[in-house]
Amino acid sequence: MLWPKKTKYRKAQKGRGLNKTIATKGTELEWGELGLKSMEFKLLSSKEIESALNELKKRLGKKAKFWLRIFPHKPKTKKPPEVRMGGGKGDVEDYVAVVKPGVIIFEVSGLDKNLLRYALKSASYKFSIKTKIIEK
């Protein structure tokens, strides 16, 4: 499971107005030939990212290289079921990555382009957002 080793604060605020903007950083391919780009705003959980990463590893094998460009830094809290109002904020349930439209999620290189496309397509099914495969 992906989560940060150390955080300054255990719990974070949700934040407002994040979904009204388009990403300005992390929108271009840096190292790979092909990449998976997000088309929607969403908080991707560490479980989603981990399952897509495992799918990508399975499809690519050992010869190709891949880069994960997002990481779940933000803690998400939840109160237990059937608890009355008040009593403070709930415990940390999961960590999420804030993904804006235009952010590159994965980059891949090192194999035939058709195989790389197939691997990215199969990894994209694990996400709950619309994605697009882009080329350098």
Give a verbal description of the structure:
The chain has 136 residues and is α+β, with helices and mostly antiparallel strands. It is 20% helix and 28% strand. A 4-stranded antiparallel beta sheet has the order 3-6-1-7, covered by helices on one side. Strands 2-5-4 form a 3-stranded antiparallel beta sheet. The model has no long low-confidence stretch (mean pLDDT 93).
What class would the helix/strand composition place it in? alpha+beta
Largest sheet: 4 strands, antiparallel
Residue-averaged pLDDT, rounded?
93
Helix content: 10-25%
Our estimate of the beta-strand percent is: 25-35%
Which outline best applies?
elongated
Order of helices and strands: EEHEEEEHE
End-to-end C-alpha gap: 30 Å
Low-confidence stretches: none
Which value, in Å, is the CA radius of gyration? 17 Å
**What's the arrangement of strands in the largest beta sheet?**
3-6-1-7
Q: How many beta strands in the DSSP annotation?
A: 7
Q: What would a concise description of this structure say?
A:
The protein has 2 helices and 7 strands. The strands form 2 sheets. A 4-stranded antiparallel beta sheet has the order 3-6-1-7, covered by helices on one side. Strands 2-5-4 form a 3-stranded antiparallel beta sheet. 23% of the residues are buried.
